[in-house]
Amino acid sequence: MKRLGPGAAIQIDVCTVMTKGVGRLKRIGVLALQGAFVEHIAQLRRLDVEAFPVRLPRELEGLDGLIIPGGESTTISRLMREYGLMAPLRKLAEEGFPMLGTCAGMILLAKQVSDINVEPLGAMDIAVRRNAFGRQVDSFETDIEIPVIGEPHFHAIFIRAPFIESARDGVQVLAQLPDGSGVAARQGNMLALAFHPELTEDLRLHGYFLTIVRGER
Ligand code: GLN
After folding, report:
1. Positive or negative, the Cα torsion across 24, 70, 153, 217?
2. CATH number of the domain that residue 83 is part of
């Protein structure tokens, strides 16, 4: 085996600086423990980024952002604990690492969740209600206005969706339903959506997340 001398160490540093350079393709992880991660990866690949499934803490290395998909928030939070992801994800969130949570992913980003069976990351100052729309309207689709992405309205697919009950100062609510329920919010580099943009052809919300990742917005 070849031993690395001091010169080699310097070279590695130079490489690291180069690969972290501004112009390179962004690398986005998608938490792949359960739920709709395949669709997010497909969506990201349509944009100019590299997308990787993440199951283990070491797979978080070298990423520029992370998507937490929809699925079952109770299951995802249990698996996050079992796979040792809670602490590294909380640390990244504190450091301002960009994260997008959709549906169950939004629940996991919240500080407060209506259900004690979910242990969220607590990355955003929002209180979220699980399965907030009740049985009759378990799932529905509707066009919503999201000013940060402009016109036309976004066709939002809600599947046993949560909504944002309250948000503290520092959280920007990006979209609401006509009854006032919060369904999209941003805080720093965190973005939470109650619906499923990965199930549509519309790339604008993934694109918006990438502008956050690139530090453009
Ligand atoms: N109802 C699910 C939960 O509470 C979320 C549904 C979804 O992600 N589509 O975890």
Report:
1. negative
2. 3.40.50.880
Q: 99-102 and 110-113 as β-strands: parallel, antiparallel, unpaired?
A: unpaired
Q: Does 9 reside within a domain?
A: no
Determine, yes or no, domain membership for 93.
yes
Rounded to the nearest whole angstrom, what is the distance from the C-alpha of residue 160 to the centroid of ligand 1? 6
Reported pTM: 0.89
Q: Which two tokens stand for residue 67?
A: 């998507």
Cα(98) to ligand 1 centroid in Å equals 21
- With respect to residue 20, please indicate whether it lies within any of the assigned structural domains: no
Q: How far is the CA of 76 from the centre of ligand 1 (A)?
A: 10
Pocket of ligand 1 (CB under 6 A): 70-73, 103-104, 107, 130-131, 159-160
- pLDDT tens string for the chain (217 positions)? 333 334 443 343 433 333 444 567 899 999 999 999 999 999 999 998 999 999 999 999 999 999 999 999 999 999 999 999 999 999 999 999 999 999 999 999 999 999 999 999 999 999 999 999 987 678 999 999 999 999 999 999 999 999 999 999 999 999 999 999 999 999 999 999 999 999 999 999 999 999 999 999 8
Instruction: Give the residue, out of 40, 79, 130, 198, with the most ligand 1 atoms within 8 A of its beta carbon, to mutate for a pocket test.
Output: 130
Amino acid, single-letter form, for residue 65? G
Domain count, the chain: 1
